[in-house]
Design brief:
With about 120 residues, the chain is an all-beta fold. About 0% of the residues lie in helices and about 55% in strands. The chain has strands at about 1-5, 10, 15-25, 30-40, 45-50, 55-60, 65-70, 75-80, 90-100, 105, 110-115. The strands form two sheets. Strands 2, 4, 5, 6, 9, 10 and 11 form a seven-stranded mixed β-sheet that branches. A four-stranded antiparallel β-sheet has the order 1-3-8-7, with no helix packed on it. Strand 5 (about 45-50) and strand 6 (about 55-60) form a beta hairpin. The chain is globular and about 40 Å long.
């Protein structure tokens, strides 16, 4: 499985960005897809995940601001990020988890929230 992420960039506090990730290869093997992020000097943390059936899970820090969605027909997952804060600045990674608990990672896309 290959994951290709896009959509990062520079945005002012309070602004919005949308990240997208496209899966290719054996995409049907992915049960859960999601987004993780890693800020400088910190560990990689889960931001949001969504199962093939549509169940979602969010980090407490993004609840009410971020929305994850998935299109199983196109093998894509998106993350709509609103009300962005400087502390959301990080490299965001698309993730896929197979039915056999194997993780796949995209290349990462940088999100910078700054005035």
């Amino acid at each position: 499985v290959q994951l290709q992420a896009s959509g990062g960039g520079l945005v002012q506090p309070g602004g919005s960005l949308r990240l997208s990730c496209s899966a290719s290869g054996s995409a049907l093997s992915l049960n859960v897809m999601g987004w993780y992020r890693q800020a400088p000097g910190k560990q990689r943390d889960m931001v949001a995940t969504i199962t093939r059936g549509g169940s979602t899970n969010y980090a407490d820090s993004v609840k009410g601001r971020f929305t994850i969605s998935r299109d199983n027909t196109k093998n894509t997952v998106s993350l709509q990020m609103n009300s962005l804060k400087p502390e959301d600045t990080a490299v965001y990674y698309c993730n896929g988890l197979s039915w056999t608990d194997r993780h796949y990672w995209g290349q990462g896309t940088l999100v910078t929230v700054s005035s």
